[in-house]
C-alpha cells in the first residue's frame, strides 16, 4: 500500500521523520541517555571495522568521520565483496559492524562469517530482525526503519546513519571524549527538519527536469558530506540511468575536472560548515569551466555563495554533525524527480533486486 503516494519510494522518503523517531525511541531515553545494548562496551574496543554494500557502505563511510572525530577511534570501512576475499588480519580488539537493510546480502554475510571467531565482537545493524545477519551477530541493533519496498534504499539509509551516530556518541562518552555541542539533544529536532525538507520538494522538481537532459552528472562533497556525494550519485544512476559520479571536492583537480563543460551539471553538497570555503573554491573552479552548479546548502551558504550558481536548494540550518542525515533527503529527491522526468521505473529499476542473496 503506497498510502496515497505514486511510488513506494515517495512513501518511504516521506516516512523518514516517523522512522527516525522510532529509532530514537529505541535508543535514546527521555533524559537523552543513549540506550544501546549493554554488551556494546566501547572501552574495550581498539578498532572498528565497518562492512556493508551499496548504500549501507556509504552510511559506514559517513560513520567513519563520526567515530574518528567524536570518539577518536581508529576505523576501517570496506565493501563486503572486497573485504571477504582480501582476508584482512582482524586484531582481537576489533568490533566488527555489519550494516545491511535486508540482513541477507550474500557478500556482507560472508564477511561476517570471516570475522566470527577473530573479532572481539560482531554487531549487526539490520532492518529485518529475523535475518541471517541478525542471527549470526553477537549484538543486533534493529534500525527500526519499517518495511522498505522500493529497491532504492531511502529510510533505511537515514536510520542507519542515526544509529551509527548514536554508537559514536556512546563510544565517545565511554572513552572520556567530549560530546559535540548540543548532542545528542539536537537529534530530537531532526525529524521536524526532515519533514520541512520533504514538504519543500517543489524546489527539486524544476532542478530535476534540467538534470534529466544531462548525460553525465557529478556530485561533490567534502568531509562527512563526501559519502553523501557518493550516495547521491548512486541513487541517481540506479533510478534515472544517467551516468553519475561522486567525488571528494578536493579530488576534482586530480582528474575529474577534465570532464567539466557546459553540458555537465555538478551538484555541490555544501552546508555552511567549517569546510564550506574549501568546497566553494572547488565550485568556482567548476563554474570557471562553464559547469552548471546546483548548490545544496543552507540560508547562510546561499547568501555567501549563490553568485553564478545555476540553482540553489536551500535547507534549514542543522547542527553540523547531523548534516549527512538531513542532506540525504535532497539527494533522494533529486534521484526520484529526475527518474520521474525520464519516465523510468522508480520502484523497480532495471537489472536490480531488493535483496542480493547471491554474490
Ligand atoms: C541502493 C541500494 C543498494 C543496497 C545494497 C545493500 O539504493 O539499495 O545499494 O544498499 O544492495 O543491501 P542491504 O543493505 O540489504 O545489505
TrEMBL record:
One of its GO terms (biological process) is UDP-N-acetylglucosamine metabolic process. It catalyses: D-fructose 6-phosphate + L-glutamine = D-glucosamine 6-phosphate + L-glutamate. Its EC number is 2.6.1.16. GO terms for cellular component: cytosol. Residues 36-178, 207-349 form the SIS domain. Homodimer. It is found in: Cytoplasm. This is Glutamine--fructose-6-phosphate aminotransferase [isomerizing]. Keywords: Aminotransferase, Cytoplasm, Glutamine amidotransferase, Repeat, Transferase. The active site is at 354 (for fru-6p isomerization activity). Its main location: cytoplasm. One of its GO terms (molecular function) is carbohydrate derivative binding. Catalyzes the first step in hexosamine metabolism, converting fructose-6P into glucosamine-6P using glutamine as a nitrogen source. It comes from the Bacteria. The lineage of its organism: Bacteria, Pseudomonadati, Pseudomonadota, Alphaproteobacteria, Rhodobacterales. It is an enzyme of class 2 (transferase). Coiled coil: none annotated.
